[in-house]
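#lab-general

N.A. 3:47 PM
ok so I finally got the sequence cleaned up, no stray characters, all 341 residues accounted for. can someone with queue access submit it? mine expired

B.Y. 3:52 PM
send it over

N.A. 3:53 PM
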Amino acid sequence: MKRKRFLMLIMGLAIIAMAITGCASSDNGDENSQSSGEETITFKFAMVDNESSNYYKGAQKIAEEVANATNGRIQIEVVAGGALGGERDTVELAMSGDLDIATAANSVLTNWIPEMSILDQAYLWENADQAHAAVDGKVGELIKREAEPLGLHVIGFMESGFRNVFSKDPIKTIDDFKGVKIRTMQNEYHMAAFEAFGAMPTAMAATEQFTALQQGTIDAAENAICNCLANGFYEVTKNITYTDHAFVYILLLMSDDAWNKIPEDLREPFLEAVQRGCEAQRQYLVEANEEAEVELKKLGVEFHEIDKNALKEAYKKVAEEKGFTFDPEWQAAVDEVLNSY
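B.Y. 4:20 PM
back already:
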C-alpha cells in the first residue's frame, strides 16, 4: 500500500512539472510578450532594395515600431536585396498567400489596378506634401479598396519620391533633350513625357542600365538622386538635372493570410505603427538624397536646374494628343488634393 501511494505521489509530481514546463514554452521566449499565453507572430517582409538603402532602413523602422506597439507580439523579418524575387514576383507571392508582405512601386500595381495609372502621370504633384496627402487620404483609400479583392491589404506607403535625370552630357534646357536616348520604366506616361521633351525613351530593366550607359546603348537614365550614388551611375554619367518629372510610391502589400493572423485588438496599433515607420522612411529618403548630392559633387558630378514649366507644358500637349483620361472617381480624388494644397 505504501509503495502504491509513493508511486502515485511521483506520478503527481511529474504531471505538475510537465504543466509548468508547458506554460513556459508557450511564451516563445519573447521578453516583450504581454503574457505567457500569447504567441509571437512573425511576418516576412520582402523588398528588392539592399541593406544599405534608405528603403531598408525604413523597413527596419517599421519592424521596430510594430514590435514596440504590440509589445513584441508581432515581429517583422525584413528580407532585402530581392532575395525572394522582383517586385512583380513578390506581389504574386503575397496574392497567393506564400509571402506575408511584399513591396512594389505604384506602376507595378497598375497591372492589376489599372485606375492607379493616374499616379504615373508626369508632373502630377507640385511637391511632396501633395503626394503624401493623396495616399494618406482618399486616393490611398481607393487603392486599398481595389487591392482587397486581389487578396492584398495595403498597409502603408513608402516612396522613392521625385525622379531626376542622370546624363552623360549636360541637360540644361528642354532643347538639350533632343535625340537623347534615355532609359525609363515600362510606363507609357513616363515615356510620353520624354517623347514630349524630344528625347528617345527606351524601356529597360533596372539591372541592365549601368552596362547600357557604359556601352553607349543609352545616354541617360532617371531615378532618385540617392540611387545615382548607390548604383554607381556617377561613374558614367557626370550630370544630373533637377527635372522632378515623376513621383513614385512604394506600396506595402500584406497577404490576406497574414492579415487574418493579426488579432483584432492589434490591428489598429499595427497599422498606426506601420504608418509611423513609413513617415520615417520618407524622411530617410530626403536625408539620403541630400547626402548623396554632397558626395556626388565631390565625385565630379554637376547638377543643373531646368525650366520645369517648359517641360510641364510639353508633356501636357502630348498627353492631350494621346487622349490620356482617367477614372472619374480617381480623378476627383486627385483633383481634391490639387485644389487643397
